[in-house]
Amino acid sequence: MKFDRIQWSRAFFKTYYEKRSFGHWLVNFNRIWVIHIAVYWFYTSYNSPKIYNGALSTPMRWSATALGGAVATAIMIAATIAEFSYIPTTWNNTSHLTRRLLFLLVTLALTAGPTFYIAIAESRTRNQTVPLILGIVQFFVSVVATLIFAVMPSGRMFGDRVSGKSRKYLASQTFTASYPSMTTKQRLSSVFLWFLVFGCKFTESYWFLTLSFRESIDAMVGMRVHTCNDRYFGDALCANQVAFTLTIMYIMDLVLFFLDTFLWWIIWNVVFSITRSFYLGLSIWTPWREIYTRLPKRIYSKLLATSDLETKYKPKVCVLQQTCALTVNFLVV
Predict the structure, then answer these.
(1) What angle is formed at CA 51 by the lines to CA 46 and CA 57, rounded to 5 degrees?
(2) Is 184 left (phi over 0), alpha (psi -120 to 50) or beta?
């Protein structure tokens, strides 16, 4: 009887805007980009020393490789900025994003700042002791930052507020953030599966994608085409044809770096699926046709043939009715 006195704006608050845009590629899949692009930078920059003259400078080679951490941090910063557009701009919603953004800016300074110092120090002095130490420290800080960004979800960097005891997030705990918990065995199986997928992927990608690409990079860096001319562009394009080709090769190598993950996911997923089938006592040699033809009778015997069913229908008719009802409910929702 007192619903008209409820101050709805104070009883509930909106936490997310339901809209679809390409920004979700950053917000929802930021760890995918970090795992692939940052690691690809680590591999490729280490094997491309002629681009930044790292063959003659050990500190610069460490530092250029360590910029992979800055790449990972930049991806996280872009994802955080994109996430601001999906939530209402209130302090309750944006406080954790603001803290995360400040933390990421500090991390970016730690993973990218030493490179400028090393480049300036090498041009002014021949003493490489301090730049070498700084480059090694920068590299290990970048590796740790990349691992954290790749493993830890963005929302849990400063603690999981939703899983706390505050009643402020009770609605989220009940609806939007109500995830089924995994047992210890299930979690270990999941961790082991992804460890095998990325372990094999990173090993194979380094030896067959990046290391085999190194000689091509050494041969093509600095190469220019002479005595060429175009009617409209002159020699501006054809003289730099090698640089364009090398850029396309880098991009194609990155695409293959992504596809390797899918390859190893299929391989280890098949292995785990077969192993689990034998563990559960199921036969993997059962024809699919037989499984589908028996499906209506199994649904009827396992789910529908109960004592509460007043009218006894034939299995196929009963299953057909239930399937249509579920389809209609799904479309209505």
Answers:
(1) 65
(2) alpha
pLDDT in tens, 23-69: 888 888 999 999 999 999 999 999 888 888 766 688 888 999 999 99
Residue 34 lies in a domain: yes
User: What's the longest Cα–Cα distance across the chain?
Assistant: 92
| Beta carbons of 11 and 170 less than 8 angstroms apart | no
Write out the residue range of the structural domain in which residue 320 sits: 291-332
Instruction: Quote the CA–CA distance of 36 and 321 in Å, as a whole number.
Output: 47
Q: What is the DSSP letter of 158?
A: T
Domain boundary among 149, 178, 207: 178
pTM reported for the whole predicted model:
0.78
Distance CA 118, CA 225 (A): 33
Give 138-167 pLDDT, tens digit per residue. 999 999 999 999 998 887 777 666 666 666
- DSSP calls for 94-136: HHHHHHHHHHHHHHHHHHHHHHHHHHHHHHH----HHHHHHHH
In a domain? residue 2? no
Whether 19 is covered by a domain: the verdict is yes
H/E segment holding residue 183: none
- Residue 196 to residue 144: CA distance in whole angstroms: 20
Residues 137 and 189 in one domain: no
Query: CA-to-CA distance for 89 and 79, rounded, in angstroms?
Result: 16
